[in-house]
């Protein structure tokens, strides 16, 4: 598996690179945002580990640029910022996961492995998820409802993917929280409600029913969509 590490603290970058290579990952390193983004756009990586504060271009800006290029690379943002609003801003910039410094290397490795599993299409896994006119192309990382292309943040994408993988099944808020926000221990279940509302707005098409059903006191269910 190929990993891109963008970290301006050269001592930390050397340590992380060594630990990842001991786990048999292939690692490229950049020490500023512009160099890191250039590597991300011109090479193929399974996971990019990106520091928030970088010379030239910060981590969230790199995440946004990678997502704008529709690359399937999983993005892990490293930062000393631990407030909820900072985590939300980081995830909304396109990061798939978020790790606050200082961190244990064992946790970093666990998150990298989890991201690589989520973003790797294995034999037997579908290349797209579909319910009626709602389609997620997992290989191209694109979403559409009918002829409408859906411009989803990564958090919205992960939420819709989980709903589609469980079409017709009621999912509790905790199940959704565990899947979409994975290691984010401090995220409250109300975040699920917030992102369901975001997703509903993007799925809305005049004359078509809302496919997401609220199951009071439990959670949410994606109904089977008839075309």
Element order: H for helix, E for strand: EHEHEHEHEHEEEEHEHHEE
- Write down the overall geometry: globular
What gyration radius follows from the Cα positions, in whole Å?
18 Å
Overall pLDDT confidence: 85
- What structural class results from the helix and strand content? alpha/beta
Q: Give me the side-by-side strand order of the main sheet.
A: 2-1-3-4-5
What's the CATH class of the largest domain, please? Alpha Beta
- Biggest sheet layout: 5 strands, parallel
Assembly classification: single chain
Q: Number of helical segments?
A: 8
CATH level-two architecture of the largest domain:
3-Layer(aba) Sandwich
| Number of beta strands | 12
CATH topology of the largest domain: Rossmann fold
Question: What's the structural blueprint in terms of helices and strands?
Answer:
Blueprint: E1 2-6, H1 10-22, E2 26-30, H2 33-42, E3 47-51, H3 59-68, E4 74-79, H4 84-92, E5 97-100, H5 105-119, E6 128-131, E7 134-137, E8 142-145, E9 148-149, H6 154-165, E10 171-172, H7 173-180, H8 190-203, E11 212-215, E12 219-222
Parallel strand pairs: 1-2, 1-3, 3-4, 4-5
Antiparallel strand pairs: 6-7, 7-8, 8-9, 10-12, 11-12
Helix pairs in contact: 2-3, 6-8
Structure description:
With 227 residues, the protein is an alpha/beta fold. The protein has 2 domains: 2-119, Response regulator (Rossmann fold); 128-222, Arc Repressor Mutant, subunit A, CATH 1.10.10.10. Helices cover 40% and strands 22% of the residues. It contains 8 helices and 12 strands. The strands form 3 sheets. The protein has a 5-stranded parallel sheet, with helices on both faces. Helix 2 (33-42) packs parallel to helix 3 and helix 6 (154-165) crosses helix 8 (190-203). The longest helix is centred in the middle third of the chain and has 15 residues, at 105-119. The chain is globular, with a radius of gyration of 18 Å. The relative contact order is 0.11.
